[in-house]
Amino acid sequence: MKYLSWTGLQHFYSKYIGNLNEQLKNVKKSIGNLGNLATTSKENLVYAINEIKSALSSFVEKKDIVDNLTSQAGDVPLSANMGRELSEDMSVETEWKIYNENNWELKYRKSGYKRYQVRVIYTDKNGSHDNKDRLIMRGCPFTPDGDQRLVMLMNVAQQIVGTGNIQFRTNRNVTLSAEEYNNPVTYECYGEVIVQ
C-alpha cells in the first residue's frame, strides 16, 4: 500500500481545502445575483447558472489529479483512489464481528487505522489447568502486527479469582497463559490489537 507524503498532503490541503472559503464566497456572490431574476431575461439566468458551474468546477481541475498508485513522487496531490483508501483506513466499525473456535468467542471491530478492539471470552467448566501458552484459536480473522499480549481476567460470578494473558500471534494463532484454578471459571479479555 502506498501512502501520501506530508508534502503531498500539504499540497492537497492548500489546493483543495485551503481556498474552499474563497470558492464558496464566489458561489454565494453568484447566487446573490439571482435575487432579481423575476425581472431579468432568460439570458441572465443562463449566465448566472454558468457562473455557478464555473465556480464549482474550479474546486478540482482534472489535470491537477495524479494517481498516487502509479506515482512515486512525494509531492503529488491525493487521487480519488487514494482518498477512498484513506477513508477506509481511517474509518471505524460500530458493529462487533464474532468469531468462534473451540468454544472460545472472539468479538472484534475496527477502532481506527490498523487497530481492532477485541473481546475474548470463554467459560471453562473443568477449571484452569496447563495454561502456559495454550493454543485456543488457530485461525484468528486478522493478522496482528507483531505478537501482542492483552491482560486477561479470570472470574467466578463476576469476582476476579485470577489473571493471565491472551496473546495474538503473527501466525494468526491465539494463545492463553493463566493461573491454575480448580473450579469452573470464565476467562475474559478486552483490549486493542494493532494489525497489519
Distance between the termini: 11 Å
Evaluate the radius of gyration.
Answer: 28 Å
Overall CATH architecture of the largest domain: Sandwich
Q: Proportion of β residues?
A: 25-35%
Short description:
This is DUF669 domain-containing protein. This protein has 196 residues and is α+β, with helices and mostly antiparallel strands. It is 27% helix and 32% strand.
Task: Explain what you see.
By secondary structure, the protein is α+β, with helices and mostly antiparallel strands. The chain has two domains: 6-90, no CATH class; 97-194, Phage tail base-plate Siphoviridae RBP, head domain (Immunoglobulin-like, Sandwich), CATH 2.60.40. It has four helices and eight strands; from the N terminus they run ααααββββββββ. It has helices spanning 6-17, 20-32, 42-57, 80-90; strands spanning 97-101, 104-112, 115-124, 134-137, 148-156, 159-168, 174-178, 185-194. An eight-stranded antiparallel sheet has the order 1-2-3-8-5-6-7-4, with no helix packed on it. A hairpin with a 2-residue loop joins strand 5 (148-156) and strand 6 (159-168). The protein is elongated, with a radius of gyration of 28 Å.
Helix and strand layout, with pairings?
Blueprint: H1 6-17, H2 20-32, H3 42-57, H4 80-90, E1 97-101, E2 104-112, E3 115-124, E4 134-137, E5 148-156, E6 159-168, E7 174-178, E8 185-194
Antiparallel strand pairs: 1-2, 2-3, 3-8, 4-7, 5-6, 5-8, 6-7
Protein name: DUF669 domain-containing protein
